[in-house]
Amino acid sequence: MNAWLAQHWQALALALRRLVATPVNTLLSLLAIGIALALPAGGQMLLVNALQLARDGAPTPRISLYADLAADRRAVQQIEARLKNHPAIKSAQLIPREATLARMKSGEGLGDVIDALPGNPFPDAFVVTPADDSPAAMDALADELRKLPKVEHVQLDSDWARRLHALLQVGRTGVVLLALLLGVGLVAITFNTIRLQVMASRAEIELSRLLGATDAFVRRPFHYFGVLLGLAGGGLAWLIVAAATLWLKQPIGELVKLYNLDFALSPLALVDSLALLGAAGALGWLGAGLSLRQHLGDH
Amino acid sequence: MIRFDHASKRYPPGIDALADVSFTVGKGELVTVGGHSGAGKSTLLKLIAGIERPTSGAVLVNGQNVGSLKRKAMPYLRRNLGLVFQDQKLLFDRNAFDNVMLPLAITGFPPAEAKRRVQAALDKVGLLDRQKAMPVMLSGGEQQRLALARAVVGRPNILLADEPTAHLDAETAADVARTFLEFRDVGVTVLIATYDDSLFGAPRRLTLHHGRLQ
Ligand SMILES: Nc1ncnc2c1ncn2[C@@H]1O[C@H](COP(=O)(O)OP(=O)(O)O)[C@@H](O)[C@H]1O
Ligand SMILES: [Mg+2]
After folding, report:
1. For chain A, where are the alpha helices, taking DSSP H only?
2. Is residue B181 domain-resident?
3. Which DSSP helix (H) or strand (E) runs through B34?
4. A20 has a chain B CB within 8 A of its CB
5. How many domains does chain B have?
6. Closest-CA residue in chain A for B114?
7. Do residues A123 and A76 share a domain?
8. pLDDT digits (tens, 9 = 90+) for B162-175
9. Using the beta-carbon criterion (under 8 Å), do B83 and A211 form an inter-chain contact?
10. Is B210 close to ligand 1, i.e. is its CB under 6 Å away?
11. Which domain holds residue B37?
12. DSSP letter at B1?
């Protein structure tokens, strides 16, 4: 166990020595990886913030339900009871037809028109707030409510939610696409850096094999090298995003104040930060593995 | 310990470096391999270490057929061998201590024990006080002794050396040769390609002529 740990420690130390031995190369690779990863990471940060802003600032999507004009009090109470007990409904508020009539009458110019009508033209209505406000769930709920007895009309004011949802979907796809492309970029950078390392260490690799080194022994420091490069690049990307967040915080604060919104830009979430570092390390390992397979040879 | 059984080695264009070579070297024996330049001395040592494989015949080391050894098994064969290369193959980017440390790092020796062994090996060849020196700062004779220290640090049971005393002045060559004799005396099997066997007492000698054993 001690010897096993010592071997890994030696490989790690060797990888670090090689990183430090070529500072310009290392720095350039780190910059390339850092900037490449900062793009999807920054995109994710903006996306999460946009989602938060949308949740906070947008009117909650609702469903309006209008009872049949002929429905009597009892029928309306039955509808109300069913809405209140429905598991997919967060809240349902009754707006009695009398209240609507009174409100409309006080409206400018409408009073006379309404007075001229024989009875109350307005139905009893409900404002329903669904538990799940995704467009699909709201559609399903609206369809179900339409089938209730004595319900004349159900209106879904989810256009806005639909547009937002679609927009966020585009954003999410964009971030995934960026992450994929730049992940491949990271693998390519590591691949090339390891290629140069292997070439620079030819003599040592050849000698190690003559002295009884296994493939694992030869590969280990390069794998560590790839992981270190990835992790350091991921760390740099995190710093870039953190700096951008700090820098944007004030101007964005000014902007949202103009819209009377209560919102502050949040930095990259902890889970996303860990995912960034994890992915960077894993891609570094992968790039190193591919490069070793190509350049170490299994003669 | 080492057995060649009608072993031949032909390099790609059709050069017969070794042809139908048979001999046996027992445990604790010191044998020199002589012959003109290009006679096949280096090739013979390379077959033992599995650096080259025989094109026909068999080479057995510690009972294992080196020619048919699996790639994965090769490292473990080599860990029983101490190799002194004709071109020494020292690593010039690390000091004497770290050069000698390499075989122990490869086998995964515990660090404290490894350090003691490296210093003992350097002491054996008279380089203990130069352990921090980089190879370029060492003389030709010192580099040769450093290569020897690296070959023996893993306490191999077979020691193979390719012209270890070439380019050395008489006194240094005698020193190096004496070290080989000391290893033979503690039971190590020693095979040395050399033009100058007089340095090694009156050893058993294999002489090659255009790849054939005389
Ligand atoms: N890798 C190789 N490819 C082709 N020919 C080689 C190779 N290595 C050695 N030879 C040839 O094999 C012959 C024996 O070489 P070698 O074993 O190095 O002889 P020695 O060590 O006795 O000088 C020489 O003719 C040499 O040119
Ligand atoms: Mg030779």
Report:
1. 2-21, 23-57, 73-85, 97-106, 110-116, 135-146, 159-200, 202-210, 215-258, 270-295
2. yes
3. strand B30-35
4. no
5. 2
6. A3
7. yes
8. 999 988 888 889 98
9. yes
10. no
11. 2-80+156-213
12. -
Does residue B149 form part of some domain?
A: yes
Mean pLDDT of B198-212: 91
Q: Is residue B143 lining ligand 1, measured as CB closer than 6 Å?
A: no
Give me the CATH number covering residue A97: 3.30.70.3040
pLDDT in tens, B6-50: 999 999 988 899 999 999 999 999 999 999 999 999 999 999 999
Q: Cβ(B43) to ligand 1 under 6 A?
A: yes
- Average the pLDDT over B57-67 and give the result: 93
Q: Which residue has the higher pLDDT, B151 or A255?
A: B151
Query: Smallest Cα–Cα separation from A125: which of A95, A88, A164?
Result: A95
Q: What is the pLDDT of residues B117-142, one digit of tens each?
A: 999 999 999 999 999 999 999 998 89
Point out the residues of chain A with pLDDT beneath 50: 299
Distance CA A186, CA A148 (A): 57
Q: Is residue B42 part of a domain?
A: yes
Nearest CA, atom 11, ligand 1: B17
pLDDT of residue A1: 57
B86 assigned to some structural domain? no
Residues B65 and B12 in one domain: yes
* Assembly ipTM: 0.93
Q: Tell me the mean pLDDT in the region B186-208.
A: 91
Residues 98-127 of A with CB under 8 A from B: none
Which range of residues forms the domain containing residue A203? 2-57+163-295
Would strands B189-193 and B30-35 be described as parallel, antiparallel, or unpaired?
parallel
Averaged pLDDT score across all residues of chain B? 93
Looking at the fold, whether A76 and A109 belong to one and the same domain comes out as: yes
Give me the pLDDT at residue A299, please.
44
Distances (CA, A) of A3 to A6, A101, B97, B105, B153: 5, 87, 19, 10, 17
